[in-house]
Amino acid sequence: MANNENIQEQQDNIITFVDENGEEVTFEYMDCIEYQGKEYLALLPTEEDSNEVVILEIEPVDEENENYLSVEDEDTLQAVYQIFKENFKDILTFED
Fold first, then answer.
1. Nearest to residue 16, comparing CAs of 50, 46, 38, 54?
2. Above 70 in pLDDT, residue 7?
3. Are 43 and 27 in contact (CB under 8 A)?
4. pLDDT at 29
5. Is 32 helix (H, G, I), strand (E, B) or coil?
6. How far is residue 2 from each of residues 8, 9, 29, 30, 35, measured CA to CA in Å?
7. Which pLDDT band, with edges at 50, 70 and 90, does 11 fall under?
8. In the sheet where 24-35 sits, what is the strand order?
């Protein structure tokens, strides 16, 4: 029974986006990070050969909807990434 719970938990952590070409791209949700009054998603691509972390800014639209924006500011991106690394230092191995 615990195996089924793990499978469901893993499926609950999968987020699918449609890219600009109309193709579905899936990510594993890792963390929601607050930085300077904004929230950011930290995601890992589910592709096996990818080892990058994707960070998106959460832009609330209303109580039920939100947009996910790429982070254009390099300083903000690096600061959020450093928080992510600190949060997962005992779980993931990072290459710098």
1. 46
2. no
3. yes
4. 93
5. strand
6. 10, 10, 21, 21, 35
7. low
8. 14-18, 24-35, 38-45, 54-60, 66-70
Which two tokens mark 79? 């600061």
Give Cα separations from 5 to 2, 29, 53 (angstroms): 5, 17, 26
pTM above 0.90, yes or no: no
Residue 89 corresponds to which tokens in the numbers above?
Answer: 């230092």
Residue 15's DSSP bridge partners are 27
In whole angstroms, give the CA distance from residue 77 to residue 54. Answer: 10
Q: 27: closest CA among 8, 50, 3?
A: 50
Query: Which one has a higher pLDDT value, 10 or 8?
Result: 10
As a whole number, mean pLDDT of residues 10-31 equals 86
